[in-house]
Please model this.
Amino acid sequence: MNVDILLNNGLILEFNKKPEIKSITIKDGSILEVGKNLEKKYKATHIIDATDKIVMPGFVNTHSHVAMSYFKGLSDDLPLQEWLSEHIWPVEAKFLSAEFVKDAALHGCAEMIKNGITTFSDMYFFGDQTAESAEKAGIRAVLGEGVLDFPVANYQNADEIFAYIRKMHNKYEKNELIDFAVAPHAIYTCGKENLIKAKDLALELGILLHIHLSETKQEVQDCLKKNRLRPVEYLDSIGFFEGNVVVAHALWLDENEQNILAKNNSSIAINTSSNLKLASGFSSFKNYLDHGFNLSIGTDGVASNNNLSILQEISLLAKLQKALNDDPTILPAKEMIQIATIGGAKALKKSEQIGSIEVGKKADLILIDIDNIEAQPMYDPYSHLVYSSASEQIKDVIINGKIVMKDRELINIDAKELIEKAKYYQKILKLF
Ligand SMILES: [Zn+2]
Model:
């Protein structure tokens, strides 16, 4: 039988199975078989030698702002509100355009692939251009179009944004890589009326809701003052959780808020680096784990992170939670990998298609080189991935059954051109 790709003799992290040296065949975008001696059974168009490589599901990044890639390092070391209102928003107001977003998003997609991300869930503007760049790069994306009460980018009001989301949803409905979502920015930038409209639209189209929530203590205090409710309680009071919701940040949830998220099958996207850098603070997740609602990993934008390494995120989060809980057994390595893969897929309501290596699922896979000094010896690949690995070890990336990075070379993107463009934009932005 003919197949598109044969991955030969890799250390496969198959779902619910012990890591083992096996092979994988891929046909029509999906995983056809996982087993031994597959080279005898199949004739493959592409053969990838996966000897001395870990083969695992690609990372699912559940909170990003991919087109902010040209704002990386533009302004650092400031608190969230000052950073947003005095630095990021003015630059966005001046420079955001369809062309800017298309270029910046392509840079961000390339950077994500180099970090082993095979799916990302974004929140930004000009989703059509981001979709174009994601498609070009060959990466899977859920594009949340940002909703705010005030005029932004090329929208005068939220109703224009809702109409745009409807149009984009129809345009990309049959696209294998792209989905759209409704992304009200936050409860302090979106009033009750628009939050309800956002929820209604998401329910009508059967798409995700993606919102920043409970990011700072100030946000919680302001919400209590204004609504006499904490942020999650407030959204619950207006029926927001009737939709499929991914809550980004969610650092300051009390017991009742955690119960609300658990009851509604909502997910949170944890953005450790961004929260630590902006000193938004950090709470213990021990309680969160006990409540059993779904956790996933986000990078946030590179303007606040300032990188897109999921390996770095999971290493940092695991260690931070151990320290905060005075408990080294919390969030063990295997659990961290699950949170960054199948946890993300569950958050995006895509766990039937992606997030693990299982026959019939989409072939979104990454290959990590372990034939080097930093990687040896290796007793447990999960431990190795969380505590010892860096993105530079990620050699090959396959998304939807297509090779998008081979030996760290991007297949669909001209890296040189991308770097030149970034340098060009850096000069312009610096002048501002
Ligand atoms: Zn964010």
